[in-house]
Amino acid sequence: MCCRRPYKILSREKYSHSDRRQRVVNVGKGLLDLRGVVRASKNLLVERERKDPLVYKARQRRTEKGSALLPMEQNKSMPLYLQFTDTYAPAWGHGGPVRLMFDYAQWLRSDFQVDVYTSDVYHDFSRIPIRREIIGGIGGVSVHRHKLFFPRLAKNSIYLHSPLLCMQAAKQIYRSRGPAIVHFSVLRGLVPLYAMLLKLLFRKRVTLIHSAFGSLHYKRALHRKVYDALVMKFFVRLVDLRLAQNDHEREVYHRICSENGRSDQSQVVLFPLHLDGTPIDRARFTESGKDLTAVKEVRKAYDIPEGAVVFLFLGRLNPAKGILRMIDAYLEFSRSRPRQTLLLIVGHDDGLQAQTEQYILRKGIQNKVRIINNVYETRFDYYFLADLFLGFPTIFEETMLASLEAMACGTPIIVSREADVPFVEEERAGHVIDFDLSTSARAMTDVMDNLPMFQVNARRTALHFDQLHLGPKLLDLFRETACGRLTSVRDSRAKAPQPV
Hints:
Number of domains: 2
CATH class of the largest domain: Alpha Beta
Number of strands: 17
Radius of gyration: 29 Å
Largest sheet: 7 strands, parallel
Strand content: 5-15%
CATH architecture of the largest domain: 3-Layer(aba) Sandwich
Number of helices: 15
Structural class: alpha/beta
Shape: globular
């Protein structure tokens, strides 16, 4: 007895000759469409290679099997450079570290496969749409954004990053062929913990690099004390290379190493901050300083009194920035000046704006002090229209990036010892003082009495920090590091070049 077939045979009558012909035609069209997609993809690849030769270079020489490497395969053969950050571009309002790490990524992408692992928040802690990977995205690097839990806590410098951030980075290192550099600029928190975990997982392939960027200061707090007791010895032991921006920061690094049982202190390398080119048109300057006509035009555009003596602070409105004592120093100076004066406090609120506004009201100086928020894109105009930049932080912030940008715009600076800037005192581009009210007022008087000279000196001093000089130094340093030749860079010092 025959078994019944489990399926039904379709009768031939349901498919006529014309139907079968139409099916063949449809298949042919599909193949043509596929050929078109392949052709378009090849044209797109050629166009990208033409526009960006650093990332999409010409096909490399053939492998032993005779096949050419595609751009993605080429990236896999390059050493990895991974950045771990709390926030990343375009969260520019978080200050210098965001911009510095962004520039470092640009400098290194010609010799490294550059990937950034970060959170999904702006500087105002609003969400950025999560993009796990942006190929050729911001600045031509790959940015991996992961969810930040409870972003309100970030206002208190508590960043709760997703564990997926570390897991994805570990997966990338595992699949790569060569060495990997993991670079981070946070001293405490989940970012350094994730970086150290990668070092433990891939000890022979991962090199840890830490840039302090003024984060080595210590504030008395129970959670910091507990964190340091549990983690700091591992941090000192696992980090291979530390970049310090001045002598004081290097000394603090050495002290942290010695306190945590690390006698080898030669892995701290001096590498100063840098400027992103010349931000202001040279036509706005003369041999004797700023062009006064250009200054008046910029002030008019921003509703600033043309004849006033204008002081500027630009940065986060944070308690550690010393904004309240800066206001007191400004008032000490302005009392002895019959000429109109104005203090501009420019930046985004980081926990102190409400208190600052109340302080201004209590002093009755609303017509002398202005608070201006969210001007990152136009900040160079504020540098240029100001006569003097002030920075009196209460903690060792080391070099303030805003002070370098101010000098590049021809504006002299007065900063406290906690924000020391190399070359400023020697080249008379401003003053670095041990802060008190009378000392700061005398320094302001000296600058204002010799303003044209200080303006010329400020621009010349800013040349020490030009990225055209420092970019190649960083690339050479990281090349040596990636090749495992740390011994050749331990005693090197990335000294600031002389002005051209």
